[in-house]
Amino acid sequence: MTSLRVLSTLAVMGAMRDLTAQYERETGTPIEADFAPTVALLDRLRAREAADIAILTAQGIDDLTREGEVRHGSRSDVALSFVGIAVKAGAPKPDIATVAAFKQALLSARSVAYSRIGASGIFFAGLIERLGIAAEVNAKAIVVPSGFTAERLVSGEAELAVQQISELMVVPGIEVVGPLPADIQTAATFSAGILAGSEQAEAASAFLRFLTSPAVAPVLRRAGLQPAVIAP
Fold first, then answer.
1. What residue spans in the chain does CATH classification 3.40.190.10 cover?
2. CA-closest candidate to residue 148, choices 9, 38, 10
3. Which of 12, 111, 167, 231 could serve as a FRET partner for 80 with CA atoms 20 to 30 Å apart?
4. To which H or E segment does residue 189 belong?
């Protein structure tokens, strides 16, 4: 049987590894998944890299649909993700319960790691500008080109890491402090879509139905995500 090729954002990697393995066991359909930041995947997809399914931010799927790279009507919202803060396992956890406490935690940290092109990194760069602390934070920031910011905690390069909670949780040896305060939090919707060039539209549709079924909710939650659609 031909594999379904999935290009997926890093934010859902932890859950997708388990879900693709489960789907392969249950259906016999092999899944080949490749993970990268949304912005990098958008470039690859616009260059017509061959695949059957893309899992990106909802905005990314909508943009590709308008551009004709994703089939109209195929967008399926899979998960909600929230931005959080992590520290190295065993390190003191700063107070981030309020916006004022969060600002102080960033200013007091020896160094802060965030991503350059990931959805969370782009959001965080704008957030520290709005909070008026961009110069101070960026003076000691480690801006990660791509990948998992929490790896910089394990290496000792950073004291705090900022990313989607689901991405932080992928890295062993760290502890999630918690989500950003509600007043400055953003919920990212991650969605799947069938690529216009896919020759396996029926098999891709079946996989998308699985990803949005109630059965996947526990896997999403264990990975630090929330189901995008709550079953009645």
1. 4-80+189-227, 81-184
2. 10
3. 111
4. strand 187-194
Q: What is the C-alpha to C-alpha distance for residues 61 and 124, in angstroms, rounded to an integer? A: 21
> Where do the H-state alpha helices sit in 50-200?
58-66, 99-108, 119-130, 134-138, 151-154, 165-168
* CATH tag for 4-80+189-227 (out of 3.40.190.10, 3.40.30.10, 2.60.40.2470, 3.50.50.60): 3.40.190.10
In whole angstroms, give the CA distance from residue 87 to residue 56: 26
Compute mean pLDDT per 10 residues along the chain, 232 residues long, and list them: 90 94 96 92 95 96 97 96 96 97 98 90 95 97 93 97 95 97 93 96 96 94 88 44
CA 29 to chain centre: 25
